[in-house]
Specification:
The complex is a heterotrimer. Chain A is mostly helical. Chain A has a domain at 1-84: NADH-ubiquinone/plastoquinone oxidoreductase chain 6, subunit NuoJ (Four Helix Bundle (Hemerythrin (Met), subunit A), Up-down Bundle), CATH 1.20.120. Chain A has helices spanning 3-24, 28-48, 52-76, 89-112, 114-120, 133-143, 145-168. Chain B is an all-alpha fold. In chain B, helix 5 (117-136) runs antiparallel to helix 6. Chain B is globular, with a radius of gyration of 31 Å. Chain C has a domain at 28-94: Orthogonal Bundle (Helix Hairpins), CATH 1.10.287. Helix content of chain C is 76%, strand content 0%. Chain C has helices spanning 6-26, 30-55, 59-89. Chain C is an all-alpha fold. The chains are: A mainly alpha, B mainly alpha, C mainly alpha. At the A-C interface, helix 1, helix 2, helix 3, helix 4 and helix 5 of A face helix 1, helix 2 and helix 3 of C.
């Protein structure tokens, strides 16, 4: 077993554990913290995959801003109320089996897909030269310039929307 | 040849009268309605006289044919609006327009105090229009139009006082009963078209003339057609077993009874049989059926007439009976004799009805003869005209009925298709006819008044009513001399006039003969060559005369000489009396056999089950299913965000599976 | 040298996504449901990165970048809505958000 494998399994397990805890937690704050655990372990996995920039962005933006926002809102709304899951009929009879089925299905096909086998045979060595931030930003600002700018406007709209909504809430 | 080239005028006149009176007559004074109604029919009558005059100028060997336009054209089925005139048509036209005209004049007086005056004249004119269409038609379909049209007008006029339930019911009964016959008639027309590929008389008869007569034992195609057409006649002309509507039809005003149910509509069946004689002559079985039905009806209906107490009902059963004689005449091949009786019957029966109307009018609406009596000095004109009519119908020598009835019975006795039993039925029926008709006269006009003379002020009818009576009486007396057979040294104008019609399309020699000349006894091989004197003796001492006189004497005995004898006879034959008095319970039998089961089926099966459960049920359940489905779908929009979420997942999963599957299938 | 096959990452992504769906369907608190959405997005991001590595292309990473940005924006607006709802309905139970009826 080489280090990448061990790292992978460890942090994959932590991610899954975090997700399970998210489901099983009774208080939302616990769910939030579990989600942070998941995100951090995912960041590690990104590193393993050679996507340093993305890993950094994940930590900074996702774990650092979005989850903080979540925690703030939870604290703001005093969402500490114990909740008991009241399973709706549709969820009870269709949700769980469907979700499992979806999971298995996707996993099965991914496992057996041509891509999977191709990759499993040696492709995918970490090649630092290919995943440099410079290359990423070149792609971002040249080929994907329009989506980039559109996303900027989207953020602007989101800010405005959040402002308006939060203000009216009083 | 003006009118012969414009035959449509004869039809247009009464139609115009009906339309004008119907649309505008409501607020007109009676005189205006009168003039339109009577005027249109009178003009029609004058036109018919002109037709006769013009036709006499032609060679009269064939029909005068007028085609106006193509009415129906569907595939191979083509019907023209075409009219034709031959001697038979002219006889019918004369009878119809002449009697109609007189009845219209009479109605002006009779209906003077009735509501709906304009409506009455409108319907009467409409009836004349349809009857003329029937008579003038040159093909089966147009004749059927007239046939149905007169049925409609009969319904409208019987139920003229539609607010009276019995009148409305009688109208329905008439229409429905004749409908049964018309069903057979329609199938007959279809069968005729299927056989001859045309409904035009000329074409059909032309093809038929090359067909051999069918056997009297099987039912060939011609026999089938004739029997089906005759079924229509059984309904329309009130023969057994579809006669039940005619007595009930007396609910209508008396002029209606006189015109429609004595002189014209009911004779349509006889006219039809006579018109279709080329077919009937080749279908011996059908002719036999016609004769049997005619004779049986004649006898049967006469027996019922003996015990009826309503003056109009007696005349109604008498009409049924006399129609039977007409069919008997046609059935034994004496078509001209049948038509002759039709003509004389129109005169004396029309007169009888109008006179009865006069009596009823005089008695302020009373129709029960048991409440009359001794009227002859109070309403003399009515009495004498009715008396002459009775002499005619009874067949007393010298009067018109004698000549026509004697011809028929003679044909039944010695004609080419003579039948002893039919003749016997006819003769006995004649005797009974004489009996009950004189009974009617004696009960009404003789004896003591059996009503309260202080309460009922009997008065003679106005001129508008009595003048037609007198005119008809003259015809009833003199009309017979037209066809005085060679017997009396007279010339049979009538028969020779009609001869070309019935001699056309002859069957091969040795088979059925149509010409009436043979049936009147002038040259039958079985008879000894006779001189006019011998014929006269035979006629005067023949059975018809004997039974007629017997009937008269019996009636005199029972109703004048010994009135209580009637009561004693009734008591001694209680059972038979009750049976006949209740008209053999035929109405009750029909009600139980047909009407009630049909009603039961209509209500319980067709209404409750088919209409309510099946049809309504299907629609309701469709609506119910829709509503339920809608209700179910509506619950998707529960407002419950979680279920929305769940549905989103379901949709996403489903879509994913779909795409994956698609991808697999494509990569495969 | 042994490399972790990409398929492993993909399986992990699937597992995380499925867990996210389960949480989305079965939890009652609105905020928890939101977090489940974020979890799903993360799982998808993992898949994208894995494929980017597999094809040796950076386009996958660009996509991940955008996903993260949009997820952030969405979280901001969404939580603002949640706050509004919480103020109005005085409850964070998703079943109390039931006015979307007509």
């Amino acid at each position: 077993m080489s280090i990448p494998f061990i790292l992978f399994f460890v942090f994959a397990a932590i991610a899954v554990l975090g997700a399970v805890l998210l489901i099983l937690a009774r208080e939302p704050i616990h769910s939030a913290l579990s989600l942070i655990v998941v995100m951090v372990s995912l960041a590690v996995l990104y590193l393993l995959l050679g996507a340093e920039f993305i890993a950094a962005v994940q930590i900074i933006v996702y774990a650092g801003a979005v989850m903080v926002l979540f925690v703030f809102v939870i604290m703001l709304l005093n969402a500490g109320v114990e909740e008991r899951t009241n399973w709706s009929k549709m969820a009870k009879y269709a949700g769980l089996p469907l979700a499992f089925f979806l999971l298995l299905e996707i996993a099965h096909w991914m496992w057996r897909s041509a891509i999977g086998t191709k990759i499993a045979n040696g492709v995918g060595a970490v090649n630092p030269a290919a995943v440099s931030t410079v290359d990423l930003s070149t792609l971002l600002f040249r080929d994907y310039l329009f989506p980039f700018e559109a996303t900027s406007i989207l953020i602007l709209i989101a800010i405005l929307g959040a402002l308006v909504l939060a203000k009216r809430g009083e | 040849m003006f009118i012969l080239n414009h035959l449509w005028i004869i039809l247009a006149l009464p139609l115009l009268g009906a339309g004008i009176n119907g649309l505008f007559g409501k607020n007109w004074p009676k005189a205006a309605v009168n003039s339109v109604g009577i005027g249109s029919v009178s003009l029609s009558f004058l036109s018919v006289l002109e037709v006769l005059r013009e036709f006499l100028q032609t060679d009269m060997s064939h029909a005068w044919f007028q085609r106006y336009f193509n009415w129906i054209s569907v595939g191979r089925f083509s019907v023209d609006f075409a009219l034709s005139v031959d001697q038979l048509t002219i006889v019918m036209l004369l009878v119809v327009t002449f009697v109609s005209m007189l009845v219209h004049i009479y109605s002006a007086g009779y209906m003077a105090h009735e509501g709906g005056y304009y409506r009455f004249f409108s319907y009467l004119n409409l009836f004349v229009f349809f009857m003329l269409t029937l008579v003038l038609a040159a093909n089966l379909i147009l004749m059927f139009v007239g046939w149905e049209g007169v049925g409609l007008c009969s319904y409208l006029l019987i139920g003229f006082w539609f607010l009276k339930k019995s009148a409305a019911d009688a109208g329905k009964k008439a229409f429905i009963t004749t409908r049964l016959g018309d069903f057979g008639f329609t199938i007959g027309i279809l069968l005729a078209f299927w056989t001859f590929h045309s409904v035009d008389f000329g074409t059909i008869f032309g093809q038929a003339s090359s067909m051999a007569p069918e056997s009297a034992t099987g039912i060939g195609i011609l026999t089938a057609i004739c029997l089906l057409l005759f079924a229509g006649a059984v309904g329309k002309s009130a023969q057994l077993p579809l006669y039940v509507w005619l007595p009930d039809a007396m609910e209508g005003p008396t002029p209606v009874s006189a015109l429609i149910h004595a002189a014209t509509m009911v004779t349509a069946g006889v006219y039809m049989v006579a018109r279709m004689h080329p077919l009937f002559s080749r279908a011996p079985l059908a002719m036999f059926v016609v004769a049997v039905v005619g004779a049986a009806t004649a006898f049967y209906s006469a027996t019922i007439g003996v015990l009826q107490t309503d003056i109009k009902k007696v005349l109604a059963y008498s009409t049924v009976s006399q129609l039977g004689y007409m069919f008997l005449g046609c059935g034994v091949g004496a078509y001209a004799a049948g038509i002759f009786h039709l003509m004389t019957h129109a005169f004396f029966k029309g007169l009888l009805f109008l006179a009865a109307g006069s009596v009823i009018h005089a008695m302020n609406g009373e129709q029960d003869m048991r409440k009359m009596g001794g009227l002859r000095r109070k309403i003399p004109v009515t009495y004498w005209t009715m008396f002459f009519a009775t002499l005619a119908i009874a067949g007393i020598p010298g009067f018109s009925g004698f000549f026509s009835k004697d011809e028929i019975l003679e044909a039944a006795r010695t004609g080419p298709q003579a039948n002893f039993w039919l003749w016997l039925l006819g003769v006995v029926g004649a005797g009974i006819t004489s009996f009950y008709m004189f009974r009617l006269v004696f009960l009404t006009f003789f004896g003591k008044a059996r009503y309260d003379e202080k309460k009922v002020h009997v008065h003679e009818s106005p001129r508008s009513m009595t003048v037609p009576l007198v005119i008809l009486a003259i015809c009833a007396v003199a009309g017979g001399w037209f066809a005085a057979p060679h017997v009396i040294g007279g010339t049979d104008y009538f028969d020779s006039f009609l001869h070309p019609v019935f001699a056309s399309y002859p069957t091969p020699a040795g088979m059925v003969m149509q010409s009436n000349a043979l049936a009147s006894g002038a040259s039958v091989a079985t008879e000894v060559a006779s001189s006019p004197g011998m014929e006269l003796m035979r006629a005067l001492t023949g059975w018809p005369v004997i039974v007629a006189v017997l009937g008269l004497l019996l009636a005199w005995w029972f109703y004048i000489r010994r009135p209580d004898a009637a009561k004693r006879a009734m008591q001694s034959m209680r059972g038979l009396y009750t049976l006949i008095y209740n008209k053999y319970y035929v109405d009750e039998i029909y009600a139980a056999l047909f009407v009630r089961p049909l009603l039961w089926i209509s209500i319980n099966v067709l209404w409750h089950v088919v209409d309510e459960k099946v049809i309504d049920g299907t629609l309701n359940s469709i609506a119910h299913v829709s509503r339920e489905a809608g209700g179910q779908v509506r619950e998707l929009q529960s407002g419950n965000a979680r279920s929305y979420a769940a549905w989103v997942v379901v949709g996403a999963v489903g879509f994913t599976i779909l795409l994956l599957g698609l991808g697999i299938w494509m990569v495969r | 040298m042994s490399v972790v096959p990409i398929s492993y990452y993909l399986v992990l992504s699937a597992i995380l996504f499925g867990l996210g769906v389960i949480a989305f369907v079965f939890k009652r608190n609105i905020i928890t449901i939101f977090m489940a959405i974020e979890l799903m997005l993360n799982a998808v991001n993992l898949a994208f990165v894995a494929f980017a590595r597999a094809h040796n292309q950076l386009d996958g990473l660009v996509f991940v970048f955008f996903v993260i940005v949009v997820a952030a924006a969405e979280a901001a607006v969404g939580l603002a809505i949640v706050i509004t709802i919480a103020h109005n309905r005085r409850s964070l139970n998703v079943e109390d958000v039931n006015l979307l009826k007509f």
